[in-house]
Amino acid sequence: MSSITTVGPAAVHRLLHRDAVCSVFSGTVAADPADLLCVTVAHERVDGSRREVFLEWAAKLTGLPAHPHLSRCSAVGLTENGRPYLAVSTARRTLADLLAEQGPMPPGQVRALGVALSDAVTVYHRAGLIHGAIQPSHILVGSGHHLQLTAYDVTAPVLAAPLPPSPYTAPEHLDAAVAGEVAASPAGDVYALATVLYAALGGRLPWVRHAREDAADPLLRAAPVPHVPGVDSDLTDLIGAALSADPRRRPTADVFREHLTRIPIGGPLAPGPRTDSVAAGLLPRRGLRPVTVAVSTELAPYRPGRERVGLRPRLRSIATATAGIALTGALLGGAALATYAATNPESTGTVCTDPAVLGGRISEQLDDGEIIESWCADGGGYVAATVDYPGGSGGDGEGSTERRVWRIEGDDLVAVSGCTDAAMPTSILEFLGCI
């Protein structure tokens, strides 16, 4: 029913997320079809100096030495029409899922996790790269609970998009996050990594309490990091040093790794019983862009703003920059997984050749409901979507799923109902159950 297209060497299958900067798809490469990929494709074409900045960053990423705790970059470059893309190996579960299901880790496992990830971050920093988005939802869980850091696109040139303030945002980057800008630094990566380890121990941070605004409160960020009941005090003291509000007082990633390697487990324990759960505020189940390939997602397809988008997509200028430099953007949340079908991010001209336009135009036709699947047929003559509608008052009851079809007529989508339209292609007739 749907066609498969390619981005570089990657065959893309499903649209996972779309924001103002990029579209993210699941995909595979022919050389290893069992390897799940997360494929990020910029909406904007680049040339000149911006093209060179992206290609320089791409060369650093592909030049990284293989590391067991860094997700493998399968492909990075420019599409035929000059759009930057990045394809990275992914998995179906993340550390956020693991901690939510199983609760805090034993201190010995947390120390091992810290050694592994700080070593990976050290490799990343030595290559001249900054991650900028270390958090449990960006740490993949592979077979045998093997963990890998991913989400390299969050601070990449052209692909970069801002994350909202969170407990993982270093204090020196809070102002930029509040302003909807991207800012990152090696010291910020160490801070985020230390927060991951503290969360894995089951710790409760002063700035992760009731209100979402607490995470950006500078006074709370300056508060001392408490010991975790039932956990070695030496371990939490070391993690607390990496959570210093002053970035100059934090260890570098390689020094942090060395300290974790040498610290003994089994020393004096902080008083009190260990908690059996991880603080909910430290478990973001999703980032700005998903890194997991799941049956469904809470992230919505991109919906253009109030300006009507016709069937010929308009080029928009999107401010981008290298990691560590602020840039503007927007965080979008919302509905359900959309299927990337006959749309082709390397083409231009119609609703069926630009994923941003397809998702936005279908959304214009819906009063409510969540798009589960969308695709085009008959060379772009028809648009079909499976839509999930919430049931009951406020969506509390049992919902319903409907199949919707529209015929493309000029700049309009005309709803099709029943099986009387003789021009409908076989795939649409089958979709509606007419044959």
UniProtKB/TrEMBL annotation:
A GO MF term: ATP binding
Keywords assigned: ATP-binding, Kinase, Nucleotide-binding, Serine/threonine-protein kinase, Transferase
Coiled coil residues, start to end: none
Superkingdom field: Bacteria
Annotated Protein kinase domain residues: 1-262
EC number: 2.7.11.1
Gene3D superfamilies attached to this UniProt entry: Transferase(Phosphotransferase) domain 1 (1.10.510.10)
Pfam family, one: Pkinase
InterPro entries referenced in this protein's UniProt entry, alphabetically: Kinase-like_dom_sf, Prot_kinase_dom
PANTHER family referenced in this protein's UniProt entry, alphabetically: MITOGEN-ACTIVATED PROTEIN KINASE KINASE KINASE 20-RELATED, SERINE_THREONINE-PROTEIN KINASE NEKL-3
Stated name of the protein: non-specific serine/threonine protein kinase
Organism of provenance: Glycomyces sambucus
